[in-house]
Amino acid sequence: xxxxxxxxxxxxxxxxxxxxxxxxxxxxxxxxxxxxxxxxxxxxxxxxxxxxxxxxxxxxxxxxxxxxxxxxxxxxxxxxxxxxxxxxxxxxxxxxxxxxxxxxxxxxxxxxxxxxxxxxxxxxxxxxxxxxxxxxxxxxxxxxxxxxxxxxxxxxxxxxxxxxxxxxxxxxxxxxxxxxxxxxxxxxxxxxxxxxxxxxxxxxxxxxxxxxxxxxxxxxxxxxxxxxxxxxxxxxxxxxxxxxxxxxxxxxxxxxxxxxxxxxxxxxxxxxxxxxxxxxxxxxxxxxxxxxxxxxxxxxxxxxxxxxxxxxxxxxxxxxxxxxxxxxxxxxxxxxxxxxxxxxxxxxxxxxxxxxxxxxxxxxxxxxxxxxxxxxxxxxxxxxxxxxxxxxxxxxxxxxxxxxxxxxxxxxxxxxxxxxxxxxxxxxxxxxxxxxxxxxxxxxxxxxxxxxxxxxxxxxxxxxxxxxxxxxxxxxxxxxxxxxxxxxxxxxxxxxxxxxxxxxxxxxxxxxxxxxxxxxxxxxxxxxxxxxxxxxxxxxxxxxxxxxxxxxxxxxxxxxxxxxxxxxxxxxxxxxxxxxxxxxxxxxxxxxxxxxxxxxxxxxxxxxxxxxxxxxxxxxxxxxxxxxxxxxxxxxxxxxxxxxxxxxxx
Length: 650
Hints:
Glycosyltransferase, two-stranded antiparallel sheet, 25 helices, Terpenoid_cyclase/PrenylTrfase, cycloartenol synthase activity
């Protein structure tokens, strides 16, 4: 049975069956679940700016969709937030204003007038967070002398130094890599009448009168989540001094080195790149190196990977997709329902996708290009993306092992073993797992965070979610492959120690990639259970007590992105099906699936389901770097079904 949005199903069909039918109906032809992974409000303007620098514009149909999306998500005060649910910031407000102007919207447009009224009193570009200023400098709407320095010569420093760029979290270093090249070249779009007009519109006062040295340290309070530390300011002063003395030969050598790294990233990811920001910036770098060359053409061919059209317009996703991640969870959810025979075709197609998207080889010269081994891993999205992640590899392995007894797993045993070996290679000294690679730099590098608007971007530290997923996967492998393996046993033991050590005093774990304590606590508990914790374990009892304390009177759970930003529970206005599902999965795993708290949550979740089998839209449940919300399109179709399957199979 399949079901389209809005179609009614017979009332006799159970809640779980209806949910599974929706899941089956929305499966992509590739066997995955592809959808909206949007939310950040700075992606579209950086894309539009990059095209403009290259003398290009979006195709008319896409242009109209982008404009619609930006208009639909302009805040009531006239600004734009860091994400579609966030309060306005100068960074995103100025960039979205510029993007709309570059897309052809006139300055007298009512929405743009409201935007100017909001950001001009807050300093306009001078009050923007750091990333906004460098994009504006690339367009010639800001001066390079007003930026925090990003000299490419940093890449030529000895790799043994704790602050060498190779020690940064890979997302951070892959953004600052092309930024350093563009900064070193003082790359700038050709002057046009339109840019000249925009420059006058976004500055409150004469552009020629700006004190660019003072502008370096000026940031609107709206854009400060991570204040600039004494250490960052001191490092900036050293680099300002260097910039006055920088020699042409060393600068040329540094630019060549950065370009070599950019090429390696492009080739390893088939020009998708690790994320949309470095993809656009890498493409712009190649435009300055070789306009209309093969690298530019290759980048343009993969740009569509990042766009998704919804009812509110065309958005740029925060990744080329979340397909592997969602598909692995979907498989586990379907298996939990026991409806594997009825939905065998869905599982067959999912198994095909999982097999097709495991990474089969390491990247070229991984040490030279600062890459962890890749063979055996699964990425967040697709094999072409080329960046395996610890928890994605773990979920891919778990899903494959769930499919094995059903006769549906397509991943050979040798490749499952490769996944295990990769997971083992990624365990940090503290016993936890980070995201893409081992932790490379000291945590104090966060004191040099220059972004203003993001937190925890400098170092890839261990997370409870990644650690739990890896512990669960290794434990599942140990059951599937009961050959004594001291490395696996030791890794699980060390992972459990990390999970226990990071439990908060109130019994919760704070999530870093989902909202927030329901998410982190689900992972914390599941990791301990997988490793053999008994139901009377005090860590589990404290965790379930924490969740019960935040259950709403109607039986639901609800928290919002502010929980992540404030590092404390922030209640939503109404119950959320995704948060409720995570809480129920946690209670069930800890042996409390039949408790009054769990059954009240089940009743709420059942009643919340619509007649067409779906759960209604609700606030964003995903986040990154503690500040920016990002939407997981499939979560509302996966987790409620999974939670009901383990708590209530009516």
